[in-house]
Amino acid sequence: MEKIERALMKSLHEEEEISISYYRDGFIHDEYITDINIDAQSKVVYYADVFGLNTRLKFDEFVDIK
């Protein structure tokens, strides 16, 4: 989880696109994301995908970040 948090913070500060994998509805999904906002108190990450759609993920849904 620490690796994921570090990668999210780096992407937030450097405004770079990153690749994430997350688990939802019984499947692992892969996406490229940008425009990250992290709510550490509720452990939720808000982001825009490559199509500009705003989405949110809980920290525990993340599987990997590249």
Helix percent band: 10-25%
Total of domains: 1
Largest sheet: 5 strands, antiparallel
Proportion of residues in extended strands: over 45%
> What name does CATH use for the topology?
SH3 type barrels
User: What's the rounded overall pLDDT mean?
Assistant: 89
State the end-to-end distance.
13 Å
Strand order of the largest sheet: 4-3-2-1-5
Name of the top-level CATH class = Mainly Beta
Q: Which residue ranges are poorly predicted, with pLDDT under 50 across at least 5 consecutive positions?
A: none
Shape: globular
CATH architecture descriptor name: Roll
| Topology order in helix (H) and strand (E) letters | HEEEEE
Would you count the extended β strands for me?
Answer: 5
Classification by helices and strands: alpha+beta
With helices defined by DSSP (H or I, 4 residues minimum), what is the helix count?
Answer: 1
What does the radius of gyration come to? 11 Å
InterPro entries: YolD
Pfam family, one: YolD
Protein name: YolD-like protein
